[in-house]
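Batch job 17 of 40 flagged for manual review because the log was empty.
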Amino acid sequence: MNAILQPLHTFGRYLELMSKVFSRPERIRMFLKQYVKEMQQLGIDSIVIVLMISFFIGAVICIQMKVNIQSPWMPRFTTGYTTREIMLLEFSSSIMCLILAGKVGSNIASEIGTMRVTQQIDALEIMGVNSASFLILPKVVGLLTMIPFLVTFSIVAGLGGAYAISFAGGIITADDLTYGLQHSFNQWFVWMGIIKSFFFAFIISSVSAFYGYTVEGGSVEVGKASTNSVVHCSMLILFADIFLTQLLS
């Protein structure tokens, strides 16, 4: 197929799959059971890595701002102010979702891809089950449900890391850091990060599921599909981040 038409063909297949995914679930009780399971696997199981990465990144940002940016000509609260803005505006939404694309996205693609190559999806189709809705919809809704909590945990952990380094490293006093975190606080920045994360969560869950659902071949192709899902999710998140930041700012 022509290299120019290939992306359009792939996008068309993605839209066709999404039309099947968002049909009415055949069994509400089964959907709710899968929905709770996906919230556990995709959201709760990701809390630890979100907290760890955000905590240390918050500490590193605080150090970098103090050592390399702040000068005698700047107010002492500059470090806390810039740390808060970075965590709220970009890291806890965009960068954290890029990290989740690697963890959650590869998990979704490999799980569904394995079901495809082992003919479990074909068995569902034979039984008259809408396999796309049955397998993918709970993952999409589950991740969309959990993403605001993950973003909130990331913000809190990042600011906690800044406080930890202020006490342990002594590079900035807790009073100066607190004043900087409170200075000119705009509540909309928190909501903007959460709104962007909803779009990123949909990209991660739907695109990863697409690559897993459409895989052909054996275990090698499942690995390739998992890699492709992470790469394309990351690219789409970056493009969407530019658009959403311009739209919401």
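Reviewer: the log was empty due to a logging misconfiguration, but the result itself is present. Residues 121 and 146 are 26 Å apart (CA to CA). Unflagging and moving on to job 18.
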